[in-house]
Amino acid sequence: MQGWKEKPPEDAWQAPAGVDEAVMIDPTTGWIAGEWCPARKLEYFKPGLGPRTECMEHGPPYDQQPEWGEPDWADKVEDEADNLGKRIEKALGRIFR
Ligand SMILES: [Zn+2]
How far apart are CA 81 and CA 77, in angstroms? Predict the structure, then answer.
């Protein structure tokens, strides 16, 4: 009696030896993939060496503020949506005048 448990099936993928911490990361930042990350990838890290920070690069869509957005614009998204067309017209008018 050696006490070995059943071997896993031959076709089961196994992490390389010494690498046993699986973390879903955002491959574009290397941080832990968050809810809004456009890409995510399961990566294997040595114990304790995986990322500990959740991705701060990608947030909810309202984080994608226009360059001219006011800091409080998230509170009035609908107003901004109404104004956006006018502001773009105005900006384009400035460029193409
Ligand atoms: Zn991300």
Answer: 6
